Amino acid sequence: MSEQQVTPELRQWIVDQAKAGRDPDAVLKSMMDSGWNEDVALVALEDTLSGFLKEHAEANGLPVPVRVPEPELFDSPSTLVVDGHEIRIVMTLRNPRVVVFGNMLTDDECDELVALSRQRLARSETVVTSTGSSEVNVARTSDGMFFSRGENAVCARFEARIAALLNWPIENGEGLQILRYRPGAEYKPHYDYFDPAHAGTPNILKRGGQRVGTLVTYLNTPTLGGATTFPDVHLEVAPVKGNAVFFSYDRPHPMTRTLHGGAPVIEGEKWVATKWLRQGRFD
Ligand SMILES: O=C(O)CCC(=O)C(=O)O
Ligand SMILES: [Fe+2]
Q1: Which of 174, 175, 209, 237 matches a 20 to 30 Å C-alpha distance to 168?
Q2: How many Cα neighbours within 13 Å face the side chain of 67?
Q3: Parent domain of 18
């Protein structure tokens, strides 16, 4: 079939499928089964659904959804090879969009990131002590530091891997954040996007726009506790060295169901590397 026409009837059918809660992958498969060329079907789906979602958001006073990072999972592969490195697909969830990866980093890469950041965590503790301030952020009791993008070879390799895996430009990523949680430390449930209602948000958004995705990679395996939790869907991701949990949010709104936190560490330490992905270039 050539010169396939996307008729108003087809558009309405696509919208009806979406309203009935059918997965876009399944709708695409149906279209291809009935003779639609994959490229034409994809464009028709994307155009129709993005137009519909935009109108729906505007009519209901919601932020308009935007494109988000996403791994290529159309054929439900069990592994993805990125730059010669094999990453396992451990589990996926559609709403909220969550994907757990295995072997995001090798053990050696995890150890290297811990070694490179440990000094700087120690230094930031000294700075806090020297102010004489006893102020503690009770929502986030971990110690943290940021690498700048491409700061060293392991960061650069990791960032290139993330960009290829999630189909998102390397320039749209913030520098990697390293967090260390000691026993009792936690990160209370929160959203990673910047709250549009906060006075400081417009200023933050000037550099790179909103955050649209997060990848949290576990750099070690705590003995007990420290799961990443998604309270809206009662999901707990166990922190396992080298594994990573990815989630995306197409608008800065709780409807994305991406409320998440780091549960208290009970025994041992928990180290993670967090990569936040922005809508635009983060320079
Ligand atoms: O430590 C975790 O499991 C979650 C970390 C997190 O939410 C973040 O870095 O934004
Ligand atoms: Fe977070």
Answers
A1: 237
A2: 11
A3: 8-60
